[in-house]
Design a protein that fits this description.
Blueprint: H1 3-33, H2 42-65, H3 75-98
Helix pairs in contact: 1-2, 1-3, 2-3
């Protein structure tokens, strides 16, 4: 496993962390929306704000392209699908760059 393999492993790990942060963000926003958790809960609010601040710069361009449908923000779902697709393409791209995998 050379330097390129380590780099692709790091990229995959970062993408996986972003996916987890997006899922936590969505779950907490649902808990807030259905009034299961109060916004006055300091620990939950701190986690929510952390996730929101990390994901908002990624989601803002998508929110401009994808309007909410029935009040539901689909940009998070689109981003999750795109990130998962990218994770699936990383091994293929690594194989192409190192010459060990098929091109098509």
């Amino acid at each position: 496993m050379g330097l390129l393999g380590i780099l692709f492993g790091l990229i995959d790990t970062i993408i996986a962390l972003v996916i987890v942060i997006l899922i936590v963000f969505v779950v907490i926003s649902w808990l807030y929306a259905f009034d299961i958790v109060s916004r006055r809960n300091g620990a939950i609010y701190a986690v929510y704000e952390f996730c929101r601040r990390l994901t908002d710069p990624i989601l803002k361009p998508l929110r401009r392209l994808i309007p909410p449908i029935g009040g539901v923000d689909l940009s998070v779902l689109v981003l999750l699908l795109l990130l998962q697709l990218l994770r699936q393409l990383l091994p293929w791209l690594h194989g192409v760059l190192t010459g060990t995998g098929p091109v098509l």
